[in-house]
Amino acid sequence: MSVATTPTSAVGPTLYRWWAFPFFIFLTSGFRANLCRLLRFWDLQNFLASLTRCRIEVNMRKRLFRSLIRQDMSFFDSHCVGTLASRLINDTEDLQALVSDGGTKLLTAVLNCVGGISMMVATDATMSVVGLLGIPLFLAATGHASKLSGYYGLLINDALAEGNTVATEALANIEAVQANCAESREVTKYEASQNAYRNLFSKTQFSESILNQTKQLLLQSADFLLLVLGMYRVVRGEMTLGRCLAFRSYLRKLYSGLDRLLEIYGDFHFSLQSSERYFDLVDRTPAIQDGEDEPPDRREKDGETTADPSQTELQADEKQLLGEQETKRQSSRGTDETVLEFKNVSLAFPSSALSGGQETASEARREEDDDSAGRRRRRGEVLADVSFRAGKGEIMAIVGQSGAGKSTLAKLMHRFYDPQEGAILLNGRDIRTLRLRDLRSRIGFVEQEPHLLRQSIAENIAYGLYSPRPTLLHRARLPSRSPLSSAEGRNSRMSCSSGPSCFGNLSRLDPRENELQTSAAGHGRLLASDGTASSNERQEEDDEEELEEILSAKEAESWPRELLRKTVRAAKIAHAHEFIRRLPQGYFTLCGDGAPVRLSGGQKQRIAIARALCRDPQVFVFDEATSCLDTATEAAVEATLDLLRKNQKTIFVIAHKLATTQKADFLLVLDKGCIVERGRPEEILEQPNSRYAQLFADEKPKESV
Fold first, then answer.
1. Phi, psi dihedral angles at 421 (to 5 degrees)
2. Which of 291, 287, 275, 290 is nearest to 64 (CA)?
3. Distance between CA 201 and CA 416 in Å, rounded?
4. Exposed, middle or buried: residue 385 (CB in 10 Å: 0-12, 13-18, 19+)?
5. Where is the composition biased (Polar residues) (predicted)?
6. Is the Cβ–Cβ distance between 619 and 649 less than 8 Å?
7. What is the pTM of this model?
């Protein structure tokens, strides 16, 4: 027995002596801390928390952007783009920090406070009363500082928004800045905004520093007083040393929870202001609301009547409103031919109203003024009592001096604004009863200063019909090899619906393409109706050869064949095909802001015209669309207008150059928001004291030169 037990008893101390020293080194060295950090890197909780924060922030930005993109034009007239961009980034970051971390922090703080107080009372009730007496002082001293810190945080966001606005405005108008030698002025403005940000940040850090020092001072004071009281009771035998030290740890836990609660209070006060601004934008209802009726032409196809209840109104005064010449023109053509009609339309922007609702005597006397037509225009109105009709296959020119309200008419047609009085009818129905998507898809608009997005030229022409899936580089990059063969891939893309899987991983067809495909025959007739039959056949053969060449490009693999065909034909009619083909990548050349290829103003306008043609709308509006074109291209665009007229399109031409209005079927002359003259251009020129003749006389010396 003794022989068996001796080795066993000797092994235990021997192993202990061998492992004691390495274990001691492990505990006292930094290896354990490093190993813990390595294990924390793979902490699933931190990973899920970070993923949740990112998801919340992304969803909030998506929601805000969906709300902003659907707002009416009056909203953007009163808000800076830089400020909205700052709201989209900074406010969402502040809110996600509160939403994602606020609940966890609040729960931890409440548990610390409740647990600390409970254990303090359970340990020693007398010392608990003394320890709790310092809480009101702690809250009073640090609560105001936390609120002040949150207030400064809100001002910091405002300063960042101001800096973004200044920088965005200066960089977007860099040509005007450099042309007027205003670089130093813009730098001064931006530096002032950054100085304001720095000062506010310094005040915030100072407030937080005072807050931290105050908290530490109160905590150390309470800790010292309770430690003295506890040691006194330990000496007297009223309390053990272990209970005294335990009570001290419970007190620290309580004040740690209070510190966290005050931090949450400051963050909540700051985020509350950000949330108000965020939800004001998210919950804002646009002034321009969607209608619920079907498109007028769809109702006509179904055999339904399209008579508007207001159609019978103002029949007695129709001759006075529209003029004798236009009344004869409408009666000879028939009301069924009317496509777009303005009825007693008046518009006044909110900014024109007096601030504070006060008027001076001189302003009251100018509240109404008479124009030469004898109508009354209230002060502040951009348009007053405007009435006219435009039918199929007509070109209506709108002329007048700058600020007369010509471009405002085009904006009303698109329902960018709603008139305060009157109605606008499309095929006999009030446009306010139509869905915005249906209305705007039937009105093509070519603005005076066209805007091209940072994408390919083909995507700019087919904008709204073809939507590439965005990437980090804001550009759809196609794979080196299509997953389908060239012929099979195009055939499958033509036969499938508008699902994301039909066109690969990088692009998809917009659902509106289905509507476009159903009207392909009519659109094809529009885009191929110029010339004789034999020339059309030859032209179609050439078009097919060019189209096959374009389709053979790698970038064209994701495009629907029919849509790309319409894109090319629209560019040809707009006389943009020639210069597009000369670009490095043709129709797939990147253009827009920051693109390597810069386009002239005339080239941009021709692309904008092609964009309007590609949609095949019912009404075309050209707002100074030929102002940047040379003489030859302008003549070609006028030929395009004739082609559109032959295809029964309604065309509005807004122009300062009166030479472009000579081919119009009807002419409106605007002055101070009122129609002062109407009729055929040659007839108005012969009228005595004609405003149109005066404008033409002012331009005639320039043309002769």
1. -135, 150
2. 275
3. 41
4. buried
5. 488-499
6. yes
7. 0.70
What DSSP string runs through 237-273?
A: TSS-HHHHHHHHHHHHHHHHHHHHHHHHHHHHHHHHH
Structure tokens at 37: 């950090």
Quote the crossing angle between the two packed helices 125-132 and 241-282, to the nearest 10°: 40
What is the pLDDT, as a whole number, of residue 319? 43
Lookup: tokens for 206 = 């100072």
The pLDDT of residue 293 is: 64
CA 548 to chain centre: 37
Could you give the maximum distance between any two Cα atoms of the chain, in Å?
A: 141
Q: Say if residues 613 and 462 touch (Cβ distance below 8 Å).
A: no
Asked whether 446 and 605 are in contact (CB, 8 A), the reply is: yes
DSSP notation for 658-691 = GGGGTT-SEEEEEETTEEEEEE-HHHHHHSTT-H
Mean pLDDT of the residues in the chain = 73
Coil, strand, or helix at residue 466? strand
CB neighbour class for 36 (10 Å; exposed up to 12, middle 13-18, buried from 19): exposed
Q: Which residues of the chain have pLDDT under 70?
A: 1-45, 100-101, 141-143, 145-146, 150, 293-337, 350-380, 466-543, 628, 696, 698-705
Q: Which residues, listed in sequence order, are joined to residue 444 by a DSSP beta bridge? A: 620
Q: How many CB atoms lie within 10 A of CB 242?
A: 10
Token pair recorded at residue 66: 């969906």
Half-sphere exposure of 672 (CA within 13 A, CB side): 15
> How confident is the model at residue 15, as a pLDDT?
47
Out of 2.60.40.1090, 2.60.120.760, 1.10.12.10, 1.20.1560.10, which CATH number does the structure's domain 47-282 have?
Answer: 1.20.1560.10
Instruction: Please state the three-class secondary structure of 267-294 as a single string.
Output: HHHHHHHHHHHHHHHHCCCCCCCCCCEC
Tell me the two tokens of residue 525: 């007739």
- The DSSP 8-state label assigned to residue 307 in this structure reads -
Q: Are 261 and 143 in contact (CB under 8 A)?
A: no
Q: What is the CA radius of gyration of the chain?
A: 37
Q: What is the pLDDT of residue 547?
A: 76
Domain residue limits, the chain: 2-39, 47-282, 454-614
Measured between its terminal Cα atoms, the distance across the chain in Å is 132
| Residues whose CB falls within 8 Å of the CB of residue 162, separated by 6 or more in sequence, listed in order | 82, 83, 193, 196
Angle of helix 561-573 versus helix 520-527 axis, rounded to 10: 30
Amino acid code (one letter) for 326: E
How many CA atoms are closer than 13 Å to the CA of 404, on its beta-carbon side? 20
